[in-house]
């Protein structure tokens, strides 16, 4: 039986209305069907029907539905995952995986396995170079900002290469905060890290997810010739929203 709308008008005398409501209550029993509330304004004064309530926000979702299993992730475990965490702490390196609290960290670090076990696929990690303080203040980003962050760690490229080589990962993504205080926009720091990685582990695949280098094409060319395997850059948003959501200094 189709659901009835609780907003129902009953013309006629009060006795007719009472009989109609009694009939409606009998036909629409909780055990057989639920009452669907119309999303409409309240009935005019004097025509209100018992049981009417203001509509709540419509979400299109069933509040009782369970989340799909693929959306549920266990806490990351496994030997590879544990080893990576310990190494990061010892060398004081940052990863987007940890800083962003990515729910897929266990799957990536364990080589395609579940969060609690290792897989036989390619284990990947994403290193965030130059610390966790950015010189820009884009509205969509939660990274800490400062106009005068600490000077770059000159040993970070070597530390990163040593750590990644010991992890046993097959693919590493290098990214960074923006550093407008550096003349080359961190391009040189990226290049040094790539070269150090390739020297210690020639077979590893290196992707560089870079900033815009303030539009400096020489900085782009320098990094592209460093020996990396993939050069990537996020434009973050569509052209019409660039000035609204990104720092004005973004290229």
From TrEMBL:
Q: Which organism is it from?
A: Oryza meyeriana var. granulata
Gene Ontology MF: a single term: 4 iron, 4 sulfur cluster binding
Reading the lineage from the top rank, the first entry is Eukaryota
Q: Which UniProt keywords apply?
A: 4Fe-4S, Iron, Iron-sulfur, Metal-binding, S-adenosyl-L-methionine, Transit peptide
Q: Which SUPFAM superfamilies match?
A: Radical SAM enzymes (SSF102114)
PANTHER family cross-referenced by the UniProt entry: LIPOYL SYNTHASE (PTHR10949), LIPOYL SYNTHASE, CHLOROPLASTIC (PTHR10949:SF38)
What is this protein's name?
A: Radical SAM core domain-containing protein
What InterPro entries does this protein's entry cite?
A: Aldolase_TIM (IPR013785), LIAS_N (IPR031691), Lipoyl_synth (IPR003698), rSAM (IPR007197), rSAM_sf (IPR058240)
Please state every residue range assigned to the domain named Radical SAM core: 117-251
Q: List the GO cellular component terms.
A: mitochondrion
Matches recorded under Pfam families: LIAS_N, Radical_SAM
């Amino acid at each position: 039986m189709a659901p009835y709308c609780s907003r129902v008008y009953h013309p006629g005398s009060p006795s007719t209305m009472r009989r109609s409501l009694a009939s409606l209550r009998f036909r629409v029993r909780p055990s057989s069907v639920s009452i669907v509330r119309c999303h409409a304004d309240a009935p005019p004064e004097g025509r209100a029907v018992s049981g009417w309530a203001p509509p709540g926000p419509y979400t299109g979702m069933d509040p009782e539905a369970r989340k799909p299993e693929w959306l549920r992730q266990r806490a990351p475990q496994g030997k590879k995952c544990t080893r990576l965490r310990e190494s990061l702490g010892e060398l004081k390196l940052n990863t987007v995986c940890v800083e962003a609290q990515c729910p897929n960290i266990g799957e990536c670090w364990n080589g395609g396995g579940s969060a609690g076990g290792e897989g036989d696929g390619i284990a990947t990690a994403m290193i965030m170079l130059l610390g966790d303080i950015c010189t820009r203040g884009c509205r969509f980003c939660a990274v800490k900002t400062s106009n005068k962050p600490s000077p770059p760690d000159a040993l970070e490229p070597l530390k990163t290469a040593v750590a990644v080589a010991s992890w046993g990962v097959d693919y590493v993504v290098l990214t960074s905060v923006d550093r407008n205080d550096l003349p080359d926009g961190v391009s040189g720091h990226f290049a040094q890290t790539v070269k150090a990685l390739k020297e210690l582990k020639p077979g590893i695949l290196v992707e560089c997810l870079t900033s815009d280098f303030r539009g400096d094409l020489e900085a782009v060319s320098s990094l592209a010739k460093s020996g990396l395997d993939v050069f990537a850059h996020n434009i973050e948003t569509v052209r019409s929203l660039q000035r609204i959501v990104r720092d004005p200094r973004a290229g």
